[in-house]
């Protein structure tokens, strides 16, 4: 069960679909994801949970806050470069949402305690 909801859950579904496409083609894993891809996906979920923008999250590509470390960031960049175009055939709605999200303007500064994690910790 994911800790994410709403827009963040959709973001996780999008990155999950791209990782699955990439892993199937490059790591020849027919039954789920290989360990490396699963670890990267778990890392991505953690980063989404802790995104300082929370539900108002902009596309990571244009975000002024760099959440990812250098190595996972490059891995995700490669995965998106490969999986992005293929998403149109396998997951057209997620692909179109992702493309539209990249064109939206984003807030200058994230609101204080807007992350999914901060909201979850405040809840009784």
TrEMBL record:
Top-rank taxon:
Bacteria
- Annotated segments matching region Disordered: 100-124
**Compositionally biased tracts (Basic and acidic residues):** 100-111
What name has this protein been given in UniProt?
Answer: YbgA-like uncharacterized protein
Source organism (scientific name):
Shewanella fodinae
Q: What is the lineage of its organism?
A: Bacteria, Pseudomonadati, Pseudomonadota, Gammaproteobacteria, Alteromonadales
